[in-house]
Design brief:
By secondary structure, the chain is of the alpha+beta class. It is built from ten helices and six strands, in the order H-H-E-E-E-H-H-E-H-H-H-H-H-E-E-H.
């Protein structure tokens, strides 16, 4: 009885490189769908088809390179220095904090609410309350998608006239799914505002133009959605930040912690 031996390892050789997709197309041209005699003109026709495929492949690669260039050009800009706006705008934390976090947000945005619920409490405890971080809220109401966002922003500004911006801010973000005028009236009562004075302010609409102007300025630095964050080192007068980093979406605490700690270490 003859025993067949296995193939020696040295016969296996090195792994071959993957075949080009174009080779697969060419190979498929040789596979007959039925038996037939080979005609003399077939090879000439085959060469033409291969040349055509190669030309199309090169054209596709050029188009992909063009698309990549366009996408790179559309990347949102990150300012090297970001002005923080009027000094009387509400901020949370010490003005002497070395690092500042600016959030462009929409009270009706579910991702802003997620950041408010999941990340903000840890930032308050570990960085804002300890004097390391200053937080600034900047209105960016997406009116087309969120019909009550502008009303909520105006409500917070009116509450600020009575020194209650942050209590109202927490009420609005904590109830982001109920921001109609009737619901806001409930929050006014819960916060302890003077109802007639608040209603007079809100009915006047005096903050709408200011909010939209701020939204336009934000768009110039690439803000297109919410939440958008800019983190940086505060100037000595607290009017601007430098070494700016940008974060889009409901950024998690661990990510912000790493960035904040890095900036704080650089300032030591």
């Amino acid at each position: 009885m003859t025993v067949k031996r296995g193939i020696p390892a040295r016969k296996i050789g090195r792994a071959r490189k993957p075949l080009s997709p174009l080779f697969g197309v060419v190979l498929s041209l040789f596979v007959p769908v039925h038996c037939s005699a080979q005609r003399s003109g077939d090879l000439t026709d085959l060469r033409k088809r291969v040349e055509t495929l190669e030309g199309e492949q090169k054209d596709i690669l050029k188009r992909l390179e063009t698309i990549q260039g366009l996408l790179a050009a559309r990347s949102d800009p990150i300012p090297s220095r970001l002005e923080l706006g009027p000094a009387d705008m509400p901020s949370f934390g010490e003005k002497t904090a070395k690092v500042t976090l600016v959030e462009y947000f929409d009270y009706q945005c579910p991702f802003c609410a997620r950041f408010f619920e999941n990340t903000m409490p840890q930032l308050r405890t570990n960085y804002i309350a300890t004097g390391k971080l200053r937080y600034l809220a900047r209105d960016f109401p997406l009116e087309e998608a969120h019909p009550f966002a502008l009303l909520a922003s105006e409500s917070a500004r009116c509450a600020n006239e009575q020194g209650k911006f942050w209590p109202m801010y927490y009420e609005l973000l904590g109830n982001s799914d109920a921001l109609d005028r009737k619901s806001i009236s409930i929050y006014v009562h819960d916060v302890g505002l003077d109802d007639p004075a608040f209603d007079k302010c809100l009915d006047s609409g005096r903050y709408a133009a200011e909010i939209r102007a701020g939204e336009s300025d934000a768009a110039k630095i690439g803000v297109q959605g919410t939440p958008t964050f800019f983190l940086g080192v505060a100037d000595h007068d607290g009017k601007a930040i430098s070494h700016v980093e940008r974060f889009d979406g409901a950024v998690d605490y661990a990510t912000l912690k790493k960035a904040i700690d890095h900036l704080l270490t650089e300032q030591e």
